């Protein structure tokens, strides 16, 4: 039986970070990955292909708006050509996650399914047993498929299978108004599908600040049909497609839609069910998420869980952050605690939605004494010249100017809001951003203008103006 300092189960973003980091520090490492090539959901089904598809859809949308300049675009979308470009992006990035690259780093790569045989033993493909002093679970998650009568029988697609489409659906129904659902809904609408989104709650992107939700409802409703407070009761085959029977609250009004394809985007479920966790006595919650403490340890101290499988924040950059910390804790013996308070996320619709820290509603719920500073993009010259003025920046601070939350809607907001992430993480007050020199005209001036609002309030509100008035009269 081979023995290792560290066994990593799962070759996604978190697992690869752990394997590479531990090997570079001299640890003897085993990496178990069920696919022929590592990379995980992000590379093969999530971040990479979805953003490639979104970019193509946005280009097509832009091309169709050139008629006002005398440029006319015609023709139908060739879905196979679109997906070919998506695959090219995957293949280009796959080089960095290639199994042979990790073998060269000294990692023993096992291709197959890993499961626990005991607290320190992992069995690969039900045959090969290896021993680990420490074990890291990084098996990710998969799409949650709701138990809707007729759904499986009549077929559906998810974020894992949408990139295999050879034909653009003429009528697409999207189940779920979260980030994945809205990103894919808009992309498919821009490619030419007639898209309807059904959401059980009363809005989309419900984890965002209310002002963000309201603006995005307005923006996206121009490109697709949004139906709220509605559940799918059943699905059956129709003469020209799939007939979906729905019920709308509060009066349970029933109606039906006929569509060509159904995209299920109703959340994620952790890939913990095939790990035989009972053989290691590792505990999970009722949804299958592996419980971890602030050091990312499970109830069995030498077993760690990172990424989607631990049920915290389902983002690739979070899995990578957790992976870096696990290397320090599991291999070196540090006892560092994970901190999610400075983790941003972006929903890659057009315009993009940026989120960091508390929303204004959360600040109110916590009964914090806060200030909120907001600037519309129509007040920022670069967005005016780009004719992309839909959106705003909102920064929430405590009374001393310390940033506790930041939110934005705008084209490429995930890029130009990074200045705020730095400021929050390194405890810089909002006023410090105002003092940074920004090139003119620049998109990040939206952030600077928001910070300027802080100084305007400080300088022109309260007692200070009266004091300054007396000082100026005195000063010669």
From TrEMBL:
<feature type="binding site">
    <location>
        <position position="267"/>
    </location>
    <ligand>
        <name>NAD(+)</name>
    </ligand>
</feature>
<keyword id="KW-0676">Redox-active center</keyword>
<feature type="domain" description="FAD/NAD(P)-binding">
    <location>
        <begin position="4"/>
        <end position="323"/>
    </location>
</feature>
<keyword id="KW-0547">Nucleotide-binding</keyword>
<dbReference type="InterPro" id="IPR023753">
    <property type="entry name" value="FAD/NAD-binding_dom"/>
</dbReference>
<comment type="similarity">
    <text>Belongs to the class-I pyridine nucleotide-disulfide oxidoreductase family.</text>
</comment>
<feature type="binding site">
    <location>
        <begin position="139"/>
        <end position="141"/>
    </location>
    <ligand>
        <name>FAD</name>
    </ligand>
</feature>
<dbReference type="InterPro" id="IPR001100">
    <property type="entry name" value="Pyr_nuc-diS_OxRdtase"/>
</dbReference>
<feature type="binding site">
    <location>
        <position position="51"/>
    </location>
    <ligand>
        <name>FAD</name>
    </ligand>
</feature>
<keyword id="KW-0521">NADP</keyword>
<dbReference type="InterPro" id="IPR016156">
    <property type="entry name" value="FAD/NAD-linked_Rdtase_dimer_sf"/>
</dbReference>
<dbReference type="InterPro" id="IPR012999">
    <property type="entry name" value="Pyr_OxRdtase_I_AS"/>
</dbReference>
<feature type="binding site">
    <location>
        <position position="199"/>
    </location>
    <ligand>
        <name>NAD(+)</name>
    </ligand>
</feature>
<feature type="disulfide bond" description="Redox-active">
    <location>
        <begin position="42"/>
        <end position="47"/>
    </location>
</feature>
<feature type="domain" description="Pyridine nucleotide-disulphide oxidoreductase dimerisation">
    <location>
        <begin position="343"/>
        <end position="449"/>
    </location>
</feature>
<dbReference type="Pfam" id="PF02852">
    <property type="entry name" value="Pyr_redox_dim"/>
</dbReference>
<dbReference type="InterPro" id="IPR036188">
    <property type="entry name" value="FAD/NAD-bd_sf"/>
</dbReference>
<dbReference type="GO" id="GO:0050660">
    <property type="term" value="F:flavin adenine dinucleotide binding"/>
</dbReference>
<keyword id="KW-0285">Flavoprotein</keyword>
<keyword id="KW-0520">NAD</keyword>
<keyword id="KW-0560">Oxidoreductase</keyword>
<keyword id="KW-0274">FAD</keyword>
<dbReference type="Pfam" id="PF07992">
    <property type="entry name" value="Pyr_redox_2"/>
</dbReference>
<keyword id="KW-1015">Disulfide bond</keyword>
<dbReference type="InterPro" id="IPR004099">
    <property type="entry name" value="Pyr_nucl-diS_OxRdtase_dimer"/>
</dbReference>
<dbReference type="GO" id="GO:0016668">
    <property type="term" value="F:oxidoreductase activity, acting on a sulfur group of donors, NAD(P) as acceptor"/>
</dbReference>
<dbReference type="GO" id="GO:0003955">
    <property type="term" value="F:NAD(P)H dehydrogenase (quinone) activity"/>
</dbReference>
<feature type="binding site">
    <location>
        <begin position="176"/>
        <end position="183"/>
    </location>
    <ligand>
        <name>NAD(+)</name>
    </ligand>
</feature>
<feature type="binding site">
    <location>
        <position position="308"/>
    </location>
    <ligand>
        <name>FAD</name>
    </ligand>
</feature>
<feature type="binding site">
    <location>
        <position position="114"/>
    </location>
    <ligand>
        <name>FAD</name>
    </ligand>
</feature>
<protein>
    <submittedName>
        <fullName>NAD(P)-binding protein</fullName>
    </submittedName>
</protein>
